[in-house]
């Protein structure tokens, strides 16, 4: 449980019991995530401590509640960390990620715990039985991959487009692979050699080490025809400065997707002349929807992305702080927690 930034505690509590429609999972694998790292170091704008910060995990059904027929004890499963109500204004408009009553599982008994109690609404919409040929580690990539699949669906990318991805952490790398499969020429930007090497492996055509250039925006533009700028840019670093650079590096009529979450209270400054006369489109993006969770799970079955490219070091639950800080240092893509 995170009590405040820097104060992460391992606590003992009673094992949850599965109520009506609920499923209790014994976690086998949990993954570190950039949002977990940011929460641990600086807090998270949408959540008030104390709360559990893990949310990427998979395991085995330990108990099912009354009325559950899709799953049984012993099933290998993965559950996404949220589900929409399907009743509010935004759900009825089809904008499920803006659900006014979004049920999020992680805050009380989420990913960094031995047992995870899955609410009925998530069991019904966003929980899956893991195929025999899929590992727990591969399945645990579902949550971040579903967000990336949703994100790419919002980018008006066509074959042959130039697309910059600013930030090559786990989500940035997932964007790179998906954009490559859509036929984009991807320019990957980061300061970590490990992550840039992974970007190249996953389909980036060009890579830019941002510590080796004076002007990241110009370095990106220099790689495009006539130095006009990219057709689209993805911000996957969680920095307002990078948000602003992403907007500045797109061509007239281009598109900027602002994906990485920033600190609470930060403000974005945009050149009105650029926005107006260049007709640049700026879109924020948050979370995902059941449609893209399902798509992501199917793509994981096909190994569109592979655990071997994302998961590095193994830790036990009592060493989760070390796992998070090792992730933060940028020499790995993700780490994973095991319980057996």
Automatic annotation (TrEMBL):
Gene Ontology molecular function: any one: oxidoreductase activity
Pfam families, per the entry: ADH_N, ADH_zinc_N
Required cofactor names: Zn(2+)
Swiss-Prot/TrEMBL keywords: Metal-binding, Oxidoreductase, Zinc
Residue ranges occupied by any Alcohol dehydrogenase-like C-terminal domain in the UniProt entry: 172-300
Family designation: Belongs to the zinc-containing alcohol dehydrogenase family.
UniProt-recorded name of the protein: Alcohol dehydrogenase
């Amino acid at each position: 449980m995170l009590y405040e930034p820097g104060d992460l505690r391992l606590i003992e509590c009673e094992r949850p019991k599965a109520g009506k429609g609920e499923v209790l999972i014994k976690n086998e694998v949990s993954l570190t995530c950039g949002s977990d790292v940011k929460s641990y170091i600086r807090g998270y704008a949408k959540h008030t401590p104390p709360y559990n910060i893990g949310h990427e995990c998979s395991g085995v059904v330990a108990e099912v509640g009354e009325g559950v027929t899709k799953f049984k004890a012993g099933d290998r499963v993965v559950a996404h960390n949220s589900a929409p109500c399907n009743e509010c204004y935004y759900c009825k408009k089809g904008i499920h990620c803006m659900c006014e009553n979004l049920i999020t599982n992680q805050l009380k008994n989420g990913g960094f715990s031995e047992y995870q109690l899955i609410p009925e609404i998530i069991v019904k919409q966003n929980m899956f039985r893991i195929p025999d040929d899929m590992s727990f580690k591969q399945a645990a990539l579902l949550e971040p991959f579903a967000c990336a699949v949703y994100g790419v669906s919002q980018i008006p990318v066509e074959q042959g487009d130039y697309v910059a991805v600013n930030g090559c952490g786990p989500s940035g790398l997932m964007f790179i692979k998906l954009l490559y499969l859509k036929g984009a020429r991807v320019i990957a930007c980061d300061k970590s050699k490990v992550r840039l090497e992974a970007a190249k492996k996953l389909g980036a055509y060009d890579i830019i080490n941002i510590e080796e250039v004076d002007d990241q925006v110009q370095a990106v533009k220099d790689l495009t025809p006539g130095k006009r700028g990219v057709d689209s840019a993805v911000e996957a670093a969680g920095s307002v400065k990078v948000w602003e650079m992403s907007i500045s590096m797109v061509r007239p009529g281009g598109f900027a997707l602002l994906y990485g979450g920033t600190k609470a209270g930060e403000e974005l400054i945009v050149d009105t002349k650029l926005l107006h006369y260049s007709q640049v489109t700026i879109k924020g993006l948050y979370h995902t929807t059941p449609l893209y969770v399902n798509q992501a799970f199917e793509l994981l079955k096909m190994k569109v992305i592979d655990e071997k490219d994302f998961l590095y070091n193994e830790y036990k639950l009592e060493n989760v702080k070390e796992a998070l800080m090792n992730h933060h240092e940028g020499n790995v893509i993700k780490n994973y927690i095991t319980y057996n």
